[in-house]
Amino acid sequence: MWPDLTRRLEGELVVLEPLDARHERDLLEASGDPEIWRWMPSPITGPAELTAWLELGIAETRAGREGAFATVDRATGKAIGSTRYLALRQEHRGLEIGWTWLGRAWWRTGANVEAKLLMLEHAFEHLDCMRVEFKTDARNERSRAALAALPARFEGTFRHHMVVPYGGGIRDSAYYSVISTEWPDVRAHLAERLARATPPGGFT
Questions:
Q1: Which pairing describes strands 131-137 and 94-102: parallel, antiparallel, or unpaired?
Q2: What is the C-alpha to C-alpha distance for residues 40 and 53, in angstroms, rounded to an integer?
Q3: Report field, pTM of the whole predicted structure over 0.85
Q4: Is there a contact between 96 and 34 (Cβ–Cβ < 8 Å)?
Q5: Torsion-angle region of residue 153: left (phi > 0), alpha (psi -120 to 50) or beta?
Q6: Residue 127: left if φ>0, alpha if ψ -120 to 50, beta else—which one?
Q7: Mind listing the pLDDT tens digit for each residue in 83-128?
Q8: Collapsing DSSP states into helix, strand and coil, what is residue 167?
C-alpha cells in the first residue's frame, strides 16, 4: 500500500476526505443530475448504484488499489462529489487522477480547480510522484477543455479503449499528463485561476 495516499487534504473552498459511508446521504443528494454521468463508464442513477459505487470505492481504497476521496464543501461540511487516485504505480512514481464528479451546483465555482490543485500538490510534493495522468472519453469536450486548462499535456488517444453503456458502447480515451518538471508552472497557474474564480469571502 502507498503510505499516506488518502490523507485529509484541506483547501479554502473544499476539503478532500477519505471516502466513507457517512458521506452517502450527501453524495446521493449531489448526484441527481443526469448530466453529471453523461460520459461516465458507470453512471449513478439512484440509491442502489450509489451504494454499490461507494462500497467498491471504500473497499478498493482499503485494499491499497485506489485512493478514493469525498469532495466536501468547506463552508457547509456537506459532501458534494468525489475523486480518486487510480492506476497506482508506486515503483514508477506514477498514478492517475480520475473518477471525478461534482454536483451540478458546484460546477464553475472553483471547487474542481482547488480539488485538482490539492491532489496534484499531494501527489508531487508528498507522494514523490514524477507523473500524474488523466484520461477521459475523447468526445467529452468539457472534460478535455478542463484538462487542457490545468494545463496537462495531451499525449494521444487510446482507440477502442473501453466498453461503455452509452454512445454506441465503445469509447476512445484521450490521455493527458503532468510531470514533475512541469508541476511548478501548473501549480502557479492553478493558484492564479483559483484566485480569479473565488469571490471575496468565498462562496456561500
A1: parallel
A2: 12
A3: yes
A4: no
A5: beta
A6: alpha
A7: 999 999 999 999 999 999 999 999 999 999 999 999 999 999 999 9
A8: coil
